[in-house]
Specification:
The structure is a homodimer of 157-residue chains. Chain A has 157 residues and is mainly alpha-helical. Helix content of chain A is 58%, strand content 10%. The first copy, chain A, binds a DNA duplex (23 and 23 nucleotides) through helix 4 and strand 2.
Chain lengths: 157, 157
DNA sequence: TATTGTTATACTCTATAACTATA
DNA sequence: TATAGTTATAGAGTATAACAATA
């Protein structure tokens, strides 16, 4: 973790730098990483209540309010009253929200290309396999990791 | 970075979890990750001035004061006056500091074992090679990554 | 004038708990 | 009573800039 030849240390460095780069890149179109994560979440669970989505993304309720406020002020998503429960606010992406999410996704794919530059497909797959092995060693639940076509997908960075 | 099959997303997840685990583990012997990083830095550059070490670890001067205060209160390191510059304070590990650093290093090696469990040496080396390739793609300077026996080593997580 | 270490301060981030309106 | 969303608030963490001693 801390010395030479350490997988742990290298992973923590690369993870930090990857997150930093991602934040920098989506920042160019005016998004913070967790705003991007929320746009993805709303796209995935469109029409669900604000707190239901917050819970799945592990965002505290009070923090959620601020993020939704901001994205709503930018007209990227909307709160709509729930017809069957007047306490609840259901979340929907606006057309602008869909567009912004698509842009951010494109940027994320660009970063993925940068990260994997010079790796043949076979080596990239090998790397992913090895990383998934490590994920299991760290007890990272599979639903929080990308994998081949199984059900739930992660909502963001 | 955000979707399935993404190296970027997986790296950021693993990096976060690795750092979290490391913090948890060294926490058991009363250290925070950056306190560990500083102990390592002082061991590596023992006798150098407080700010010189802070700069190498990219710790702001005012933050450094608090960390050194704490470690000095715990008698893990000492400030000693510089005989040639009365403004400067040179840092030294105490015997207890050396001991604590060794304990933390042992714990870090344990985490490394957990991370790499079930990987043959050949696969582990392959993983490290692939991660170094990614590091180059991300312009992470080689001096900040563990590598085979070259000069400067990273000071901590 | 510049630099070392320190202190004070301001700022961000986040979570906790109180509050309202509903259920 | 309990829950959805909101607001207010307090805490941690961190950086910025002012300060005293020394170069």
């Amino acid at each position: 973790m801390s010395g030479s030849e350490s997988v742990g240390f290298t992973l923590s460095q690369l993870g930090l730098e990857t997150s930093r780069r991602f934040g920098e890149i989506v920042g160019e179109i005016g998004l913070e990483p967790r705003q991007f994560a929320l746009l993805r979440g709303v796209a995935r669970w469109e029409g669900d209540a604000q707190q239901a989505i917050a819970e799945r993304l592990q965002i505290p309720a009070s923090t959620m309010v601020a993020i939704v406020d901001h994205l709503e002020a930018e007209r990227l998503l909307e709160r709509r009253p729930d017809p069957t429960d007047r306490r609840a606010r259901n979340l929907y992406l606006t057309p602008a929200g869909h567009k912004r999410l698509a842009e951010a996704t494109t940027l994320a794919m660009g970063l993925e290309s940068t990260i994997c530059a010079g790796l043949q497909n076979r080596k990239r797959d090998l790397l992913l396999d090895l990383l998934r092995h490590v994920a299991r060693n760290l007890d990272i639940p599979s639903w929080s990791l990308p994998d081949k076509g199984s059900g739930e997908r992660p909502a963001g960075l």
